[in-house]
Design a protein that fits this description.
Elements: H1 5-17, H2 27-48, E1 51-52, E2 56-64, E3 68-75, E4 81-87, E5 91-99, E6 105-109, E7 117-120, E8 126-137, E9 141-150, H3 158-178, E10 182-184, E11 193-198, E12 203-209, E13 216-223, E14 229-236, E15 241-245, E16 253-256, E17 264-272, E18 278-287
Antiparallel strand pairs: 1-9, 2-9, 2-11, 3-8, 4-7, 4-9, 5-6, 5-8, 10-18, 11-18, 12-17, 13-16, 13-18, 14-15, 14-17
Helix pairs in contact: 1-2, 1-3
Length: about 290
């Protein structure tokens, strides 16, 4: 029997919104944005049996007012999907748009709120692009997050969500204590945080990543309570391995300074998780 989402939401928010030892980016606003979408994802799972998408299912980034960020993913015909957006507490209007491979707009949510949601069941399997727009915010910019769910997705237990997100932010804050002027990736139209559910030994690749050419980027990884060994690999657009951290631990770090106009591919791997699926997380930080 499922536990009530209304009972779980305050617990999750308390976990994510706890005061950081030191601001970094600042992480408390990324926490607020993620708490927004995860709470709605739990409720959607409770009410509709939709689960977390079987690939990259969670993203977050900082957007200036008026800025848009996109993500292209593979959707299967006949499967119902939900795209759930959420902003931090300063966001007054966040919008979502969904496009097919030809750039045709399929659906959107442009209501004046910071919690957009669109659903879509594709007739054709293929690549689709979801875009999130920071239409308005009380500050010059704010954090936004996106959650992808489907009726073929996974149900992620509360303890797993809490463990994975807490692990990532604890690592972020630890780095911020050691390095001044570090924050989340500030490249335009680029997600800075990713989460995906992976089987033991499975990996996923995120392409078209653009890193800063003027700042050093640090890509960190982590996971839930089952993630004993997480690996990260950074490739050029042409497939050349540039950096990797495949040491036997749960907290890989890869640093690299990008080149102007270049794109990169990030591979996240669940190397060992006791035979269980694991929610694997990564974040791209940069040092000013």
């Amino acid at each position: 029997m499922k536990r009530s989402a209304f009972f779980l939401i305050p617990i999750l928010f308390f976990c994510l919104a706890a005061k950081a030892q030191r601001e970094c980016g600042p992480p408390k606003y990324m926490r607020q944005a993620l708490a927004n979408v995860v709470a709605k994802g739990i409720l959607l799972n409770d009410l509709s049996d939709m689960g977390f998408h079987k690939d990259v299912c969670m993203m977050g980034t900082y957007l200036s007012a008026g800025e848009t960020v996109g993500f292209t993913t593979q959707l299967s015909s006949g499967v119902a999907y939900a795209f759930v957006g959420g902003g931090d507490d300063d966001v007054t209007d966040l919008d979502i748009f969904l496009y097919d491979a030809q750039g045709k707009e399929l659906t959107k949510d442009t209501k004046t709120d910071n919690s957009p949601l669109v659903t879509y069941t594709p007739a054709t399997t293929g690549s689709y692009t979801v875009k999130v727009k920071m239409f308005s915010t009380k500050t010059p910019g704010s954090f936004a997050s996106l959650l992808i769910m489907s009726d073929a997705g996974y149900t992620i237990p509360m303890k797993t969500l809490k463990a994975a997100l807490s692990d990532l932010f604890s690592m972020t804050e630890a780095l911020c204590q050691k390095i001044n002027k570090m924050g989340f990736l500030s490249t335009t139209n680029q997600w800075a945080m990713f989460g995906c559910v992976l089987d033991e030994g499975e990996d996923t690749q995120i392409s078209n990543i653009r890193l800063s050419s003027s700042k050093l980027s640090a890509i960190i990884g982590g996971g839930d309570q089952n993630a004993f060994d997480v690996d990260l690999f950074l490739y050029s657009k042409g497939g050349t391995l540039l950096k990797k951290d495949d040491a036997t631990d749960a907290h890989p770090v890869v640093s690299y300074k990008g080149s102007a106009g270049s794109e990169y591919t990030l591979k996240m791997k669940n190397a060992r998780s006791g035979g269980e699926k694991s929610l694997i997380m990564s974040a791209i930080l940069e040092v000013e």
